[in-house]
Amino acid sequence: MTDRPLRRQPLYSQIKQQLLRRIGDGEWQENDALPSEWDLADELGASQGTVRKALSELVADGLLYRAQGRGTFVAPAPSEWGEGLLLTPGLFNEQPDDLAREFLGISRGNASDDMAAALQLRRAAPLLRVRQLWRWHGIPVAVDEAFLPADEFEGLDARWLRGSSGVYQALQQRFGIRLKVLCEQFRALMLPREESALLGVTGMVAEAPALSLIRVSGSMEGVPLEWRQRYCLTHNWAYTARRA
Amino acid sequence: MTDRPLRRQPLYSQIKQQLLRRIGDGEWQENDALPSEWDLADELGASQGTVRKALSELVADGLLYRAQGRGTFVAPAPSEWGEGLLLTPGLFNEQPDDLAREFLGISRGNASDDMAAALQLRRAAPLLRVRQLWRWHGIPVAVDEAFLPADEFEGLDARWLRGSSGVYQALQQRFGIRLKVLCEQFRALMLPREESALLGVTGMVAEAPALSLIRVSGSMEGVPLEWRQRYCLTHNWAYTARRA
């Protein structure tokens, strides 16, 4: 029972981990093509069938995608905005504008009862708390708090988050885990004090109504892994979902 | 050029209209099975091929659906709530509750510039304005205004709307047009005065924040046909979309 070979992963699984690590290290960027199965098999000293099995699992996990006749590519991380886009008030006929993200910090905390229930964790389980601010042409429009199970994502730090386009890209690159949205809830609330300050809402309009989004995201298998709370200012913008 | 036969619709198209009229008259309700192609062909004095063509077009229009090996059924109208559901505050773990709808009235008006643009109509085009109130266990939670091009839906009246489960069912039964959501926009706003009164928000909390939803729906081909404005109270409820 102490033999190492008994605990060794199957070869395709080792190859999978190795490819993930190389993607994480930036050898292949989002939407870059991987070498062909032939070339990978050659380079890794494995059969083409073994390489194909590793690639197929990574496609199933959402980390790679195939394009008919063109090869296998690194999947871009899902948008931090989900299917919703923040637009200017010219409703329905504007192109989505690029939002600039500012990483505010990462800290540790404990799950509230709502979070613990949604993330299927024990009460007051340790969480990582990642804060981000979104600006539109320099103007703050939204502030995010993402809460992640600390035990699952040990080692996620400010360096990874600052160097990525957001939480989802960091998780994909650092942990090989792609998140998908499981549930989103919208409410209209008065903006809390801390978020008011971050969004520059002061003085007369300190009591601004804000769109509150709570999103639970999880693995491709549906295991919840993120609780996100977002506050958006919507007097000049709207949260838009297109379905056409 | 005055011959009636020249202007006569092809037989499958006549059968389509006839089936739509019978669905509209309530001969077959939502999720009822239609007679078999054989029986319909027999009854209508047409070939089975002609009946099949009529049924296939109604399936493509979203008004009927087929169940493998079981037959062809009348499609239920889409939910007035879209994919969003109004829930109690126990986030993410509650079953959606049945909302009771109250038809408030139908009137005529003119398109605002935003509406005209979104519905691809001329400025100040005539619209039908349908108002509905939604209650949860008797408590008002949301109020809707649906604006429809008056020229498209001449004859839509209070009788049809009162007898249906909502605008979408009335359009499907009365006009044989199934709507789908093209775009939805969420904002947080202070509740307007008229809606405050309808939702029973008075006194101290007359300045309540409300979730504003603007939805543009259209035909299966994507032609916009409805502008809907909804105000929801979300201090005790949340607008939820599940995607898992």
From TrEMBL, chains A, B:
Pfam families: GntR, UTRA. Keywords: DNA-binding, Transcription, Transcription regulation. SMART domains: HTH_GNTR, UTRA. Residues 9-77 form the HTH gntR-type domain. The keyword Amino-acid biosynthesis does not apply. The keyword DNA-binding applies. One of its GO terms (molecular function) is DNA-binding transcription factor activity. This is GntR family transcriptional regulator. It comes from Chromobacterium rhizoryzae.
